[in-house]
Amino acid sequence: MKPIKVGLLGMGTVGSGVFTVLKRNQEEIFRRAGRRIEIAMVADLDTTRAQAAAGSGVEVVADARKIIANPEIDIVIELIGGYGIAKALVLEAIEAGKHVVTANKALLAVHGTEIFAAAHRKGVMVAFEAAVAGGIPIIKALREGLTANRIQWIAGIINGTTNFILSEMRDKGLDFDVVLKEAQRLGYAEADPTFDIEGVDAAHKATLMSAIAFGIPVQFDKAYVEGITKLGAQDIKYAEQLGYRIKLLGITKQTAKGIELRVHPALVPAKRLIANVEGAMNAVVVQGDAVGTTLYYGKGAGSEPTASAVIADLVDIARLHGADAAQRVPHLAFQPQSMSDMPILAMSEVVTSYYLRLNVADEAGVLAKVTGILAEAGISIDAMLQREADEVGGEGATQTDLIILTHDCMEAKMNGALAQMQALPTVLSPITRIRKEELA
Amino acid sequence: MKPIKVGLLGMGTVGSGVFTVLKRNQEEIFRRAGRRIEIAMVADLDTTRAQAAAGSGVEVVADARKIIANPEIDIVIELIGGYGIAKALVLEAIEAGKHVVTANKALLAVHGTEIFAAAHRKGVMVAFEAAVAGGIPIIKALREGLTANRIQWIAGIINGTTNFILSEMRDKGLDFDVVLKEAQRLGYAEADPTFDIEGVDAAHKATLMSAIAFGIPVQFDKAYVEGITKLGAQDIKYAEQLGYRIKLLGITKQTAKGIELRVHPALVPAKRLIANVEGAMNAVVVQGDAVGTTLYYGKGAGSEPTASAVIADLVDIARLHGADAAQRVPHLAFQPQSMSDMPILAMSEVVTSYYLRLNVADEAGVLAKVTGILAEAGISIDAMLQREADEVGGEGATQTDLIILTHDCMEAKMNGALAQMQALPTVLSPITRIRKEELA
């Protein structure tokens, strides 16, 4: 069988990883795939560096369109990133009848509907295992491994930067800003870390998992996105005392009223496996009605872990290159004509439980007022922790922390109760509200 | 597209699960697969019970060969178990040109070479996701998700019964025999638990993973198999004090000299995720050269989790029913003409580290003699724990426990040193030796 020919757009960290791994493991991969996978062309603006990385046997060009125009190329790997030129090139490659492999979660989460429709029309595959959780084969697990199941919910640690920061904050008792600087120094966070720390990257990935799990179109614009920038060391400590860890979770869940799609910090019981995922590692919990709870863990980023996912997609495509649509796994797991129009719920309609920290005046009647407001709103309390004033503020302190864990209630109700509590004269600072997920 | 027709052999726990899940989630599965999957016939000796479970629309027969002889049937699901009639029926189904889905790890680990060769000849698929780790899509992860990797090692908790027993022994400080009885009472262990507690079931699964990971034939007869029946509560306690948990692991590893394939209890650092897998749950750690460490966790047994895996295989086959061999994933992950003849190493050639517990006379010079023997054999000590005699045996006791953790050495060397230590007059009871796996 003749080799399948690949053109690689973008010879950065992941591109070099794809090159390195394909070369190092070429025999192993050939023994599995039954045919050679050959990177015949590379496009990168820095042709000198790219040529040095690719070696002399590979044609390196500055203009990606030369790859797309080459009729010998079967598959285009897009590793440029972003929504701009990457989008244009992916669509052009599809129009030219190439299969596409991409790690570009932002592009697919925002423009996936357009891209998958174009691919469907042209009868080509767009594969994106590398777009979610790096080397963990979670897209394959969801699209193929769990096809028997009605997926109930997914909750994942799908951003390594923020998990590294949260792990360090807990380990060292430090505040967010301090740890972020350290993470940047160590290369775990980028110079502009906004997409990571504000939860946007995790939301891109959660959006893709949501589509695949429930057969809905990608709808990044409907995702609720909250990052970790406001988390304080004291909340991590209080959570610990109550038996919880705080993780940035990407969550998507099917309910009778619609689909939840949200990224935010959450308290998770410390005894859950996912609560023990530390550092830059990723993990995704998938709850299916037949299989029960499953978890997938590994490196969510990095050159070779991401390359591992890109190459797995290449092998899949090498096998199914000439197959007809019915023989291929649909892009979003469900057949295009069988997509669901279940709406994505507004955050105010989400039902979850909460951790609240109120900085209150240390005087009689405060607790009664706070619990009165919650009772009035129909929100029941699961646990409470009141610190002695002098433990929190030192001797003679006149304010203290009141920590409340609630049972499930609708976010809209909680918003109302929070506004009322915040208006109490004895509540001295903005209330901290962190959602709590039992993942049971 | 017309429905794909399935015949089910064996309407027991898993068979009923397949039936229930296929029915409950038929719309969801159809939306994914793009065609209906219909169980058209069921074979079970107890036709009355099977008919009641299957409903009136399904033909129930006592003679499985009626299913195999039916030209309308595309796929045969074998859920009978064992090596006898199950083997004959699987081979007959293959000869009749049917695809086969089976959860029968014992059959495939022992007779896989014959079965896969027959399937290859006839151009049919034999799918067995359900044979390893129940609902966890680990076969798919290994065969397809990690194709880019040279797999370095796999270590798994792949027997729920023994993990339940070990979890209970640790939680409650009880000895093996007591917990086994409890496990039998609760239905976590069978009336004859031999296959589970002696490690045979885990070895069947490890054998299958070994073949898929390294492209070698299934070779159950070469596996080293040691169960948990000799583990005492005190070893679990000592391990805990040293920062370890004891788990029954199925391990397979590629080394320069050959493949390791072994099942035995092992100390695992308590901080590893897999050390925290409790109760009847399963988890498999896979180390690949590109992806690094990945872990897959879920229910390893039970009606619906196993059915989840069986149905995922049905959907895969429904898609690739008419495809040619090059479009399908090879049975053992590697193309049949590209299998490796790497030998499986004898246990004496395995390199690992050890936990040793010596019950010794509480007198001067014992430690010097023991450490002298280890030094002579070139085995270096990683950590040591000597209990005060009265802590172990009460006041006035004249014997004590000496716990030694070693660094890596070859098993043959350890066997020699153990024999010498055992011969010391001051070593009062049989030495306990448990292997230790850092899984780093």
TrEMBL record, chains A, B:
Domain ACT: 355-435
Keywords: Amino-acid biosynthesis, Methionine biosynthesis, NADP, Oxidoreductase, Threonine biosynthesis
Example GO biological process: threonine biosynthetic process
Keyword Kinase: no
Molecular-function GO term, any one: NADP binding
Active site feature: 205
Metabolic or biological pathway, per its Swiss-Prot or TrEMBL entry: Amino-acid biosynthesis; L-threonine biosynthesis; L-threonine from L-aspartate: step 3/5; Amino-acid biosynthesis; L-methionine biosynthesis via de novo pathway; L-homoserine from L-aspartate: step 3/3
Chain residues that bind L-homoserine: 190
Alphabetical list of PROSITE patterns matching this protein: ACT, HOMOSER_DHGENASE
Record field: transmembrane: none
A Pfam family: Homoserine_dh
EC number(s) per entry: 1.1.1.3
Positions that bind NADP(+): 9-16
Binding site for NADPH: 105
Keyword Amino-acid biosynthesis set for record: yes
Family to which this protein belongs: Belongs to the homoserine dehydrogenase family.
Annotated NCBIfam families: PRK06349.1
Protein known as: Homoserine dehydrogenase
Species this protein is from: Polaromonas eurypsychrophila
Gene: hom
